[in-house]
Write a structure and sequence with these properties.
This protein has 117 residues and is of the alpha+beta class. It has a single domain, classed as Dimeric alpha+beta barrel (Alpha-Beta Plaits, 2-Layer Sandwich). 26% of the residues lie in helices and 32% in strands. The chain has a four-stranded antiparallel sheet, covered by helices on one side. The longest helix has 21 residues.
Length: 117
Amino acid sequence: MRYTFLLYSNPADFADLTPEDWAKEKEVYGAYIGALQEAGVFVDTDWLHPAETATTITLKDGEKRVQDGPFAETKETLGGFFAIDVPDLDAALAWAEKCPAAKHGKIEIRASAMGDY
């Protein structure tokens, strides 16, 4: 079963990181990606630009509306994701616990619904 981890954190928590700190973060995430790949469960990942660079579009009520910035203003924003393929939610939770994002944010875990429709 495919699960996606949506990684949420407060960008203010990273405002004072130095280039050396960022390099360490990348190493930690690189090790996590390597572990997922070695276990044969890795599907995909991406690290997103800050929420303030987002553009939001809706066609609700037949009218196109484009908005600069995120859909909602919150302290915690979506910063990236991991997609993995594991047997069940318990296995997904075990991998989510190992994700570096869990140490300074929240991880929302969702099962894929592609096969449901």
